[in-house]
Amino acid sequence: MVKATLAQAFSIPSASMEPQLRAGDRVVVSRLAFRLHEPRRGDIVVFPSPAVPPEDPGLVEGLAHDVLESVGLRDPGDRELIKRVIGLPGETVEGRDGIVWIDGRRLIEPYLAEGTLTGDFGPFTLAESHVFVLGDNRTNSRDSRFPEIGPIPVDTLLGRATHRIWPPHRAAFL
């Protein structure tokens, strides 16, 4: 199907990225980001959900879906997820005592709401071609901690969220 090649608007479908992104917010996703550099810790990324089989609409319906999604007028629902990159290829990621640990070092996460604790998980050692993603709202996020999602192959990342554009009073660089 036809998709935006430089950037695409994306509607936030859930509260999994609060407080940074709220359900209903719209962000601009750079579709070129990972052609220019590898994913970085802290990037907010969009990727197809491994838990939802891809749909195969007809040509006309698929084109209409792509156009509406590219301008942020069609909600991707569960088909695409947006999360934050926490672990990079080759690293070991673990949740222990309410804190995320990367290769045995505490990860400082200034983007989390005050008092946010991360439940215990792992450790997971990432393949050289995968990243570990978490939602910022740790108690309300299906992410790499769950077997149906797991670590995400880098080559499936659709792009990096760069700006929050809606609502206008919350517009910001991400």
In short:
With 174 residues, the chain is mainly beta. Helices cover 9% and strands 32% of the residues.
What does this protein structure show overall?
The structure is a single chain. By secondary structure, the chain is mostly beta strands. It has a single domain (7-86, 132-173), classed as Umud Fragment, subunit A (Ribbon). Helix content is 9%, strand content 32%. The protein has 2 helices and 12 strands, in the order ββαβαβββββββββ. The protein has helices at residues 33-36, 59-70, and strands at 7-11, 26-30, 44-48, 80-87, 92-96, 99-102, 105-106, 121-125, 130-134, 152-153, 159-166, 172-173. The strands form 2 sheets. Strands 1, 2, 3, 4, 9, 10, 11 and 12 form an 8-stranded antiparallel beta sheet that branches. A 4-stranded antiparallel beta sheet has the order 7-6-5-8, with no helix packed on it. A hairpin with a 2-residue loop joins strand 5 and strand 6 (99-102). The longest helix has 12 residues, at 59-70. It is globular. The chain starts with 6 loop residues before the first strand and ends with a strand. The mean pLDDT is 88.
Strand elements, count: 12
Helical segment count: 2
What is the third-level CATH name, the topology? Umud Fragment, subunit A
The secondary structure category is mainly beta
> Main beta sheet, described?
8 strands, antiparallel
Q: Please give the alpha-carbon distance between the first and last residues.
A: 28 Å
CATH class: Mainly Beta
Architecture, according to CATH?
Ribbon
Poorly predicted ranges (pLDDT <50, ≥5 residues)?
A: none
Number of domains: 1
